[in-house]
Specification:
single chain, about 120 residues
């Protein structure tokens, strides 16, 4: 499987609470409504918590400020991602998502990239 990772920062004029509410309650359902058109199999939002702990973790490594959260979207393959994003329906879905994201995400301070997972361990088993 291939995974898109989207590290997001909120627009400065939007409060953290409003950002998380909009992302979860408005944008999330929109993504779900176009998942079939994009051929996406899974979508997860991870909202940043524990600001003081994050600050300490970042300072200990000399890192910049944490992102407000990450989105992960999975496809069966790169071919499925390309097919979903180049179809007429997929292009329309991507346009709708980007238009909605422009209301709450600071594009210039966010990052987007594809990954392939390599599980090292899972102690839940």
């Amino acid at each position: 499987m291939i995974k898109l990772v989207y590290c997001v920062r909120r627009k400065a004029e939007i409060s953290e609470a409003e950002f998380f509410r909009y992302w979860l309650e408005k944008h999330g359902p929109l993504v779900k409504s176009v998942a079939h058109d994009l051929r996406a199999l899974r979508y997860v939002q991870s909202h940043t918590t524990e600001a003081k702990v994050n600050e300490g973790l970042s300072q200990g490594r000399g890192l910049g400020k944490p992102f407000d959260g990450i989105t992960e979207v999975w496809w069966e393959s790169v071919d499925d991602l390309i097919a979903g994003s180049t179809s007429v329906e997929g292009r329309d879905a991507a346009r709708r998502l980007q238009e909605d994201e422009s209301h709450f995400i600071d594009f210039a301070d966010s990052r987007l990239f594809l990954t392939e997972e390599h599980e090292i361990f899972d102690l839940r088993d």
